[in-house]
Predict the 3D structure of the following.
Amino acid sequence: MSSSARVSPIPNHDGGNDHDDNGSSRASPPSRVDGVAVHANALEKRFGATVALDHVSVDVRHGELFGFIGPDGGGKTTLFRILVSLLVPDAGSARVLSLDPVRDYRALRKRVGYMAGRFSLYPDLSVAENLTFFASVFGTTIAREYDRIEPIYVQLEPFKDRRAGALSGGMKQKLALCCALVHRPDILFLDEPTTGVDAVSRREFWDLLARLKQQGLTTIVSTPYMDEATRCDRVALMHGGRLIAVDTPADITRAFEWPLFGVRANERYKALLALRRYEHAHSVYPFGDVIHYADDRANQRAAIAADVTAFLKANGFGDASAEPIEPTVEDVFMDRTSADPASRIPDPGHVTTTNAPRH
Amino acid sequence: MPPVIDARELTRRFGTFTAVDRISFDVTAGEVFGFLGANGAGKTTAIRMLIGLLQPSGGSAHVAGFDVATQAEQVKRSIGYMSQRFSLYEDLTPRENIRLYGGIYGLTLAQIRERTDAMLQRLGASQIADAPVARLPLGWRQKLALSVALVHEPRIVFLDEPTSGVDPITRRQFWELIYEAASRGTTVLVTTHYMDEAEYCDRISIMVAGRIAAIGAPADLKRDNGVETIDELFVQLARPSNPSSPSRPSSPEHP
């Protein structure tokens, strides 16, 4: 392999004639000021025997709302910490706003907003005191930055005298977002801002991110909630330290290669067990009050639906119905990871996916 | 058979703030009961009262037949508990965790040995029985934690966001374990922020601002409220009380 692919020089700031690595037909554009906000190239990180990041390469464009979607232990936090200069990779390289997080960390930190996965504000300070503190650390004031933080600040204002530790989960996250924005960063990294937050507050948080996107802010979010993928321009599905897909949510679901059906039956759990015994079953998973059934045949969907319904009726589920449905990001994620050892019995001597330490 | 959980006008105040405001509900043996609500709605406070960790300010609750206010120790012996934050001791192996919890609950060594074997076999986890828990993937830890929470065969187990952050396949495997436990007669009270999981429960309640705003079977609740999903119902109920959405109507459409 060519060494230039591993450690590429910082591109010229004029962005003029940075010739791509020996034209090896890579589709990803070079890391230039005008196109790519984040460029990760074959990043690797280990913690002891644990491979937290395994050759992660991805580009995020300026102005994108980009999501890293995956369960705990997938490597999301490790990747974010490398990109915001809090952790040094074992191998590979990264550019954030054309800066090297290892070498240019001082310059980078002024321009990055970062919200850690754990609530990391001062719980004994009030909402207003936390905001004032973070503004002053960056040499500014709330008044001066008001236009940027306004949509969030107006939601916090009724609670401005409340101790941050006494806020509900959703409000804590809004305060943390506000603090991450107060120095007017050029790019925002939000590590699992909606984890443990209820469904309503989660929605509101994503509404705020959509408003920031309208202002042109590049925002990179991680989440374990697969349904939140649809709020992003593009997403990377992350599992076991690897990226298993990078695309728009629509193109990710389009790549699901099996005919998929929503099966309903009153005795849902028993119907699910019965379907798993059906000879053409590719996968059978509960999804709320529906069973997602993927078939391994390439027939007409209507014919398969009729077959599946007939099978269930013959097995005592008289009320069963099956109809073609569109796959979700979660369907794709499960299909790509079902053969993965992480969801099976691990070999105790060689466990590769656990949480990276969080501090 | 009397209900396994029987809460009557259960109330908890902190100073002038009423965290749980006269909630009444019951849960029957073998039921999978989803205990939902927005952050700050009072779920955690209610659960802490039900498991004997917090004295009610008013009303009453019986769990496994014991009064949570006066018989907290008997309540604790009759229940299992696991959460995302606290489940197993990470420096111990699964086998050691089982022995620890079994010992705490007063099982004999013979009982512990027998249940350890049965549990590991049921999970298909024999080969990881002697690896430190810290080295196991989160999903496995959570599956083991549920089994450990059931080691003393409690009548009811409280699961507080047990699947938070767990990968989607393991999340579903975890629910199969819940169904198994319920089919053996264990009552399950579970909280979750995954709205699809609410649909897996026999019945759910949705707490809003300290009160139970809706309770029933998911299918009935959806039909009665004219919504397609529990997610939709949750948003409908929780929005009006959410002070961060002043533009929303201030009176709930549904009681």
